[in-house]
Design goal:
Layout (H helix, E strand, L loop, with lengths): L3 H5 L6 H22 L2 H13 L2 H12 L6 H13 L2 H10 L2 H10 L10 H6 L1 H10 L2 H9 L3 H13 L2 H11 L8 H13 L2 H8 L6 H4 L2 E6 L12 E2 L13 E2 L4 E3 L5 E4 L2 E17 L3 E11 L1 E3 L9 E10 L3 E7 L6 E7 L4 E7 L2 E7 L8 E7 L4 E5 L2 E6 L9 E7 L9 E12 L1
Parallel strand pairs: 3-6, 4-7
Antiparallel strand pairs: 1-18, 2-8, 5-6, 6-7, 6-18, 8-17, 9-14, 9-18, 10-11, 10-17, 11-12, 12-13, 14-15, 15-16
Helix pairs in contact: 2-14, 3-13, 5-11, 6-10
């Protein structure tokens, strides 16, 4: 597979951008989860259901848009004022409270009232003339007309109603064009929109949690960012791993041109693991397929770093950010307690990158060109019961459902010089390694 065009036209996301995107996504997920449990969001959700309810909106629109003239308070007050300003009703109450009416009504209750029907007696009596004149006056006729009438009863009812504290308060409320702003509901609405404008709530509402799905479905089980002072003994050992503890682990192979130095060529520099292949003479143990272990003089040294005794896992996602220089072999692979299975997540043979699965004496894989191995890329393996999927950064480059490993495997990094290669120095650098379960 040639990734040149994928890289050129954006199918392969640059490593720095991919890391930035992933870091931002994880940060967003953690922020989202934190906000989800916050008292502010609980209050926001509660207020959301209140403020966005049909009843609240209808009440809000009524209070904001209803005209004062359409209210019962206005109608009652207007009726009262209209009656109160009628000249006849004003005259009625003037007469009602006058001494003239009181005197006349008192006179009306006496036997002398009958004398008003006798013109001679009226003519002879100033007081009778006075009472008779009052009886025929407009004020008295107005009194008779309105006293105990429906209109006066209505007036008195309206007067009593509009005088109550409840009516005065309600009338002032409806008469106020800014009445909505005086309500508890308005304060509820204010608090809702205040929360809605809070950066955390705004972020939470805008966020699409489905984009976190792939990250929620995994759990980090192993990580090393290589930011310590030395290689962690809790995570790594040097040399090969064998199930039989009696077997020599610090060795090379007789058909290789480098001696493995047992950790001397592995170091931590500027927060990454560096495995250096150096030109230096060393007499070391080598494994010969027919002669077994023997001592051999080497002109180059290198190293193997693996997690076999500290960490192994069956299935999951295995990732490392890697680069290498030098026309020799550099590899990131999964090994087991036997020769097979072995999975190459990244293998640079000095010319091309290969990825593949070796199991049951069958090799299944792919060769990748078009990217520069001296630049950092993230090489990943997704391992399930049914298939193996290899990725470089965001791009799937190969998958297989053949001979899937069924046992726990460990992580390993190493550089070596094959018998057919021209011996040369080189460096394998690992910025970080992470393993997840799914």
């Amino acid at each position: 597979m040639n990734l040149f065009w994928k890289k050129l036209f954006g199918g392969l996301t640059p490593t720095a951008k991919l890391e930035k995107n992933e870091a931002e996504l994880i940060e967003a997920m953690e922020r989202y989860d934190k906000i989800e449990k916050s008292p502010q969001l609980i209050e926001y959700n509660k207020l959301f259901h209140i403020v966005k309810s049909a009843a609240f909106q209808e009440n809000r629109n009524t209070l904001k848009n209803r005209k004062y003239k359409d209210t019962e308070e206005y109608q009652n007050k207007h009726k009262y004022e209209k009656l109160h300003n009628l000249s006849d009703i004003k005259l009625y109450f003037e007469v009602l409270n006058s001494p003239e009416l009181a005197q006349y009504l008192a006179f009306e209750a006496t036997p002398a009232f009958e004398d008003l029907g006798d013109d001679k007696r009226v003519a002879a009596s100033e007081s009778l003339r006075k009472f008779k004149a009052f009886k025929h006056s407009k004020p008295y006729k107005t009194y008779v007309r309105f006293h105990d009438s429906f209109i006066i009863q209505e007036y008195e009812k309206l007067k009593a109603k509009i005088s109550t504290p409840e009516f005065v308060k309600a009338n002032e409320f409806w008469a106020n064009q800014e009445r909505w702003h005086t309500t508890p509901e308005y304060q509820t609405e204010l608090q809702f929109y205040k929360l809605a404008d809070h950066p955390d709530i705004a972020f939470y509402v805008k966020e699409k949690p489905e984009r976190f799905k792939n990250y929620r479905n995994v759990k980090l089980t192993f990580v090393d960012d290589f930011d310590a002072k030395s290689i962690s003994e809790k995570s790594w050992n040097f040399g090969f791993y064998y199930k039989n503890p009696k077997l020599i682990k610090q060795h090379s192979f007789s058909n290789e041109k480098q001696a493995n130095s047992g950790g001397k060529n592995a170091s931590l520099t500027t927060s990454h693991l560096k495995i250096e292949t150096k030109e230096e003479k060393l007499n070391a143990v080598a494994w010969h397929s027919k002669q077994g272990f023997l001592n051999k003089d080497f002109n180059f040294t290198s190293d193997i770093v693996q997690s076999a005794e500290k960490f192994q896992q069956k299935y999951g996602i295995f990732r490392a950010k890697i680069r290498c220089v030098g026309p020799i072999h550099h590899a990131f692979w999964l090994g087991s307690d036997e020769k097979l299975p072995m999975v190459n997540i990244f293998h640079f043979d000095g010319k091309s990158i290969t990825m593949g699965n070796a199991n049951k004496d069958k090799v299944d894989g792919i060769k990748v060109n078009g990217i520069n191995p001296s630049e950092y890329y993230i090489y990943s393996l997704m391992w399930t019961e049914k298939e193996l999927i290899w990725m470089i950064n965001n791009l799937e480059v190969y998958r297989t459902a053949t001979n899937i490993p069924k046992k726990e495997m460990y992580l390993a990094f190493n550089s070596f010089i094959s018998e057919k290669q021209k011996a040369s120095p080189g460096t394998l650098e690992i910025d970080w390694v992470r393993v997840y379960t799914t």
